[in-house]
Design brief:
Layout (H helix, E strand, L loop, with lengths): L5 H60 L4 E3 L5 E3 L13 H10 L19 H13 L12 H13 L24
Antiparallel strand pairs: 1-2
């Protein structure tokens, strides 16, 4: 017959309670740091908006009203207002934009890439296609790559199964990450 050791049971409960409290403290600390980082990121975005407004609107307007495009300050620094340009072609306007460029003799700025995808174990077909293109005077560019998510899945699978994995060759890092999901 087993003896019940109430004192030992009580010690185990106290130890377990301390461990849970410690874990809880760490979860709260993680939550607090994530909240602080979010506030900092939001503040940084707001600061960037303020910088953009002053840089792109306030100072150019003030200098223009003074009839200036630059200004030297007493400390030796200077303020210059120079034009900057930005452009993009929306999907909706792509055809018209390309047509216009070609009509203006600017078609050479339109990059024309041709990509042919081959599946797994189709290396021979890919090589044949590259040779065919070369035989017709084209210089195809062949880029080989492994999709990052595919590589990660393969590494995880091999490590979990205890199979050989050259860690340095693939710059493998194995660690732990905590994800805290919150209610919306």
């Amino acid at each position: 017959m087993n003896k019940i050791d109430f004192e030992k049971d009580q010690e185990e409960v106290l130890t377990r309670t301390k461990e849970i409290r410690s874990l809880s403290d760490q979860v709260l600390k993680l939550r607090s740091l994530e909240d602080e980082m979010k506030r900092d990121e939001d503040a940084l975005k707001e600061k960037q908006k303020e910088i953009d407004k002053i840089s792109q609107d306030v100072i150019p307007t003030m200098l223009s009203e003074m009839g200036l495009s630059s200004l030297k300050l007493a400390d030796g620094s200077s303020v210059d207002v120079k034009p900057f340009y930005s452009a993009s072609i929306s999907v909706k306007n792509r055809e018209a934009a390309y047509k216009w460029l070609r009509e203006q003799g600017l078609g050479d700025i339109i990059k024309n890439d041709i990509t042919v995808s081959f599946g797994r174990n189709e290396d021979n077909k890919a090589a044949d296609y590259a040779n065919l293109a070369k035989s017709h005077g084209f210089e195809p560019t062949q880029k080989l790559k492994v999709e990052p998510m595919t590589l990660k899945a393969m590494v995880r699978e091999r490590i979990e199964k205890g199979l050989d994995m050259p860690m340095d060759t693939f710059n493998v890092f194995v660690g732990n990450r905590t994800k805290l999901t919150r209610k919306q």
